[in-house]
Amino acid sequence: MGDKVKMASRCILVRLLIGFPVLMMFDSPFRAQQTSLEQLQAKLQQQYAAIYHLFANGPGKQVYPSNPQERIHRWQDDLAHGFADAQATIDEIVKLHPPDEEMWRERSDTMRLYSQPVSSPDSRTVFGAKEVDKRARLIDAPAAVYPDAARTAKAKGEVRLRMVLAGDGTVKYIFPMKPLKYDLTEAAMEAARQIKFGPAIRDGQPVSQFETLSYEFKNGRDLTPYVPEHEFYF
Q: pLDDT for 29-49, tens place per residue?
């Protein structure tokens, strides 16, 4: 009887030893993908931080040439390179087929647009407010909903968004130039998607226009978004 028990135990042990590598064989690619995805997302956050830093500091004289026009162009080039780096990382994430793949593809399209070097308006399909005959007209720009997490934390501040008011009447390519925590950035982006507007006009035709909007959150209240007085991008 004892020999039978020993034999049965050995069989179980052998099955475990055989089965464990098989499980590891199937599990390892998944674990590797998860690790790779986490590493890429961490890399992307660093790249976003570099872009936020450029937006926050602007084309300062202490970093860029003293000539104002050259200074702005150099700053815009640095931004374009930053967006290009972020797009490359996002494209690597897309190759892993994450669950929210469509969202990542939209982000890639956004990074691709903003990574384009500054060029003549005649070679572009999206224009700055000063490059159109009649700029886009906001008809209804709803305030962002103040998130519960932000209200609990008594968080306040400004979320500044860059976006495209497209010629077809839709809001596209939203990027937070100045983000905030406690879901405030997401709240501002969701509000921006609801904007109603009349498209910009160039050469008698509706066209797509870059726009910047500020969403302020103060004392538990969400305020009506507005176009900031100064912006350096276009």
A: 556 666 799 999 999 999 999
Rounded CA separation 66/175 (Å) = 29
Structural contact between residues 138 and 213, judged by C-beta atoms closer than 8 angstroms: no
Q: What is the pLDDT of residue 232?
A: 57
125-180 pLDDT, tens digit each: 999 999 999 999 999 999 999 999 999 999 999 999 999 999 999 999 999 999 99
Residue 190: what pLDDT? 97
Q: Which residues pair with 208 in a beta bridge?
A: 126
Q: Which amino acid is at 230?
A: H
Contacts of 76 (CB under 8 A, 6+ apart): 117, 118, 232, 233
Answer yes or no: are the C-beta atoms of 159 and 179 closer than 8 Å.
Answer: yes
- Asked if residue 127 lies in contact with residue 209, where contact means CB atoms within 8 angstroms, the answer is yes
Q: Please give the radius of gyration of the chain, using alpha carbons only, rounded to the nearest integer.
A: 25
What contacts 41, CB < 8 A, 6 or more positions away?
93
Residues 86, 112: Cα–Cα separation, whole Å = 9
| CA angle at 112 for the pair 111 and 113, rounded to the nearest 5° | 90
Average pLDDT, the chain: 86
Residue 199 tokens read as 């498209």
d(CA 55, CA 78): 10
Give the tokens for residue 159: 């979320």
Task: Kindly list the distances between the CA atom of residue 79 and the CA atoms of 101, 193, 233, in Å, as whole numbers in the listed order.
Answer: 25, 24, 9
Q: Once rounded to an integer, what is the mean pLDDT over residues 219-231?
A: 82
